[in-house]
Design a protein that fits this description.
Order of helices and strands: HHHHHHHHHH
Strand content: under 5%
CATH class: Mainly Alpha
CATH architecture: Alpha Horseshoe
Largest sheet: none
CATH superfamily: Tetratricopeptide repeat domain
Distance between the termini: 16 Å
CATH topology: Serine Threonine Protein Phosphatase 5, Tetratricopeptide repeat
Amino acid sequence: MNKKLVPLSRGVIAVIVSAHLAACSTTANRNSADSDSYQGTKDPFTLLAQNYYAIGNIPAAFENARKAVENDDNNAEAHATMGLLLMETSDNHNAAKHFARAKKLAPRDPFVLTSYGTYLCGNSLYGEADKEFLAAASSPLNRQPWVALTNAGICFERYGKYAAARERMQGALNLKADFPPARAAMKRLSAKG
């Protein structure tokens, strides 16, 4: 059965980054190899890359992500951010390398899991993507599990699995009823079979 796929937009990916930045703004630094206490990065280059990415300045985001990775090859969030940026430019080969490194460094980091899930979804690996999103949503380290559930719902919507998409969106809305991306997606989904 051929399904028309809805491409992942920069807006969907920016939801991950923007929500992550909001969570990081109230937390302390963490060692990226320490996957037992998720508190967000305070690495200036990673933060700059994520902020530039959230506002759509992709060249500046790339430059800062490159500096973050060069300065600390053990920075899982820098690798995940670079993976998202490379995914946007359709450089899936190099994106996969950065996501693999991020997952090796911080296998339970919610930002890494959600970012990698987005990459998998963008490459039509929906089942694997859903596993990453659910792992991120259920992580006790995740301060914003509704972001991962929203992305899981968007992934199912893209695949044409509307009932599963509505289930994930409802889960997101149960956690944060006023999350605009989940509300907008649920509105779209209510019109679909």
